[in-house]
């Protein structure tokens, strides 16, 4: 990896994580936790296997990623972020927020995997205090469902089915995020094709206040900046 050779903390950080695919590897490990090599390959469509191996070695050398042998029945090498690597979560969150206005409606041919949606949901909902009793929301968009739960200890987001959810949202990730950011109303996203099942009151509990909604980045309906 080439260095910028600058005595600047930003340049030093980019020496470590600025190469193509590197932060997306971090995204995978933040989203899924411990991953096998094949998990990383599946979550990074388009990466060459030798390049993935090279990037992992680089991250390991810099104390961002560690690998170990998983016990049976897995019995294979697994990768996870070190505490130093986990500090990149705030960087990934900030870049994801900055990139929201760059997202047009999902173009045909662009790949989407559900677990990529878990991180922005954690960021958006983790900033809120959800009032009321414990609530479970299931989001069905992409290849796997995502479960969102609120309780006295906060909001948790994980990939997988919910047990007896209070409400279910089914549709594109764009419509789900428009709703949860407060860019569109329940009626607005329903009119655009989002299917809403269960308690609307449960969904409303996850939505931002009017002040928070007005401060949110305006994503997902933006014109493609390449045009």
Give the tags:
single chain, 227 residues, alpha+beta, Nonspecific Lipid-transfer Protein, Chain A, 5-stranded mixed sheet, 3-stranded antiparallel sheet, 41% helix, disordered C terminus
Which SSEs are present, and which pair or pack?
Layout: H1 9-17, H2 22-32, E1 35-36, H3 37-43, H4 49-61, E2 65-69, E3 77-81, H5 83-86, H6 89-99, H7 114-126, E4 135-140, E5 145-151, E6 154-159, E7 167-170, H8 173-181, H9 186-191, E8 195-198, H10 200-204, H11 210-215
Parallel strand pairs: 4-7
Antiparallel strand pairs: 1-3, 2-3, 4-5, 5-6, 7-8
Helix pairs in contact: 2-7, 7-8
Describe this structure in words.
The protein is an alpha+beta fold. The chain has 2 domains: 9-87, Winged helix-like DNA-binding domain superfamily/Winged helix DNA-binding domain (Arc Repressor Mutant, subunit A), CATH 1.10.10; 93-215, Nonspecific Lipid-transfer Protein, Chain A, CATH 3.30.1050.10. The protein contains 11 helices and 8 strands. The strands form 2 sheets. Strands 6-5-4-7-8 form a 5-stranded mixed beta sheet. A 3-stranded antiparallel beta sheet has the order 1-3-2. A hairpin with a 7-residue loop joins strand 2 and strand 3. Helix 2 (22-32) crosses helix 7 (114-126) and helix 7 (114-126) packs parallel to helix 8. The chain is globular. The model is unreliable at 220-227 (pLDDT under 50).
The strand order across the widest sheet is 6-5-4-7-8
The gross shape turns out to be: globular
In terms of DSSP E residues, the strand content is: 15-25%
What class would the helix/strand composition place it in?
alpha+beta
Q: Count the DSSP helices.
A: 11
**Regions with little confidence, pLDDT below 50 for 5+ residues:** 220-227
Sequence of secondary-structure elements: HHEHHEEHHHEEEEHHEHH
Helix content percent band: 40-55%
Output the CATH topology of the largest domain. Nonspecific Lipid-transfer Protein, Chain A
> How many strands appear in the DSSP assignment?
8
Which CATH architecture of the largest domain would you pick?
2-Layer Sandwich
> Main sheet?
5 strands, mixed
Radius of gyration: 19 Å
What's the CATH first level of the largest domain? Alpha Beta
Straight-line distance between termini: 33 Å
Structural domain count: 2
Q: What is the arithmetic mean of pLDDT?
A: 88
CATH homology group of the largest domain: SCP2 sterol-binding domain
